[in-house]
Amino acid sequence: MTDLQKRSLLKIAALSAVATAALVGCGKKEAPPPVVAPAPVPAASAPAPKPEPLKIAFAYVGPVGDGGWSFAHDNARKALEQEFGDKIQTSFVESVPESADAERVIRDMASQGNKLIFGTTFGYMESMLKVAADTKDVKFEHATGYKQAENMRTYDSRTYEGAYLAGVIAGKMTKTNTLGVVASVPIPEVIRNINSFTLGAQSINPKVKTKVVWVNGWFDPPKETEAATSLINGGADVLFQNTDSPAVLKTAESKGKRAFGWDSDMTAYGPKAHLASAVINWGPYYTKTTQEVLDGKWVGGTHAWWGVKEGAIDIVSIAEDVPAETQAKVQEIKTGLADGSFSIWKGPITDNTGKVQIAKDTVADDDFLRGLMFYVKGVEGKVPGAK
User: Fold this and answer.
1) CA 20 to 30 Å from 71, out of 18, 121, 195, 377?
2) pTM, entire model
């Protein structure tokens, strides 16, 4: 190829490049892709503040280690903690007298931020009413009482059902036909239990009679021991109690007699003497009440009275030497109490003066039982203070 030809080819290539550039320059420019901003990262929401636990306080008339009444309440308090965990916070004060001290303790519980307060003995009733009137934002629960307010209600267990079941066993196991009862204070609750124990025994053994010694207190082991000894010296070979310590069972053990545990299972305090324990389970009621408060559904001014039917009353640890037919009878009665087919207080029932208190085939209502202040036939003596 000559130099002239090479120059011609280069010239053509250059012109082609210029033309192509011109065409591109005259064309529509393609818009660059839009810049998309990254999606904003949502800010981490602050965790919702944890609700404050419901503060619940208990006032006990005796020490938590009494083995009976206060021990049963404290077991239910511990069950509440297991059930509700960090939703609640519980506390208690033990050995609170049924006096002006009770008002001071209960008022202090309210001032410490407790919004649910349980007073666990009859003698706290007036004190709780006073504090309830002054602290409307607190809910009060009073055991065994009968006075209510807008922010205070009452609850009880049908301990007389456990007493009757114990009586059935006592009627079979006594050899002297004389039963003994160590009684606390003469109020209808205690009178009902003495009578129901006697009625249960008489349903098995009509020859039974019952002696009663009053100690005028709920927890006084020395007096309970003295009363139990007096009853044994008076011929009683099976003892029952409506007091809070295991002193009666211990006394029976030391003297070779038989006895029952009360409110809690007392087997360990007198294993040879122990026939059975009539126990209270406060757990179901305390659980229900606490849930109502947490749900905002608690209503004051009412009364609850729970027994075998609700799982609040039972008789446990029946001794091996109690005959099988007697144990079967106890179970039959428990079933009847649970389904309503059996009534303990069904006439005819007479008092120990011969007066008919409940006519034949009549079943006493709760109002009658709440005001009961007489001894049934077979119980010796007179109710202290009764007209």
Assistant:
1) 195
2) 0.87
User: What's the pLDDT tens digit per position in 103-125?
Assistant: 999 999 999 999 999 999 999 99
| 367/351 Cα distance (integer angstroms) | 18
| Neighbour-count burial for 182-203, b at 16+ CB within 10 Å, e otherwise | bbbbbbbbbbbbbbbbbbbbbb
212 shares a domain with 149: no
Parent domain of 112: 54-157+283-303
Nearest to 276 by CA among 169, 161, 183: 169
* pLDDT digits 0-9 by tens, 285-339: 999 999 999 999 999 999 999 999 999 999 999 999 999 999 999 999 999 999 9
Integer Cα distance of 48 and 190 in angstroms:
51
Distances (CA, A) of 278 to 247, 343, 353: 16, 18, 29
Paired residues of 360 in beta bridges: 347
Number of independent structural domains in the chain: 2
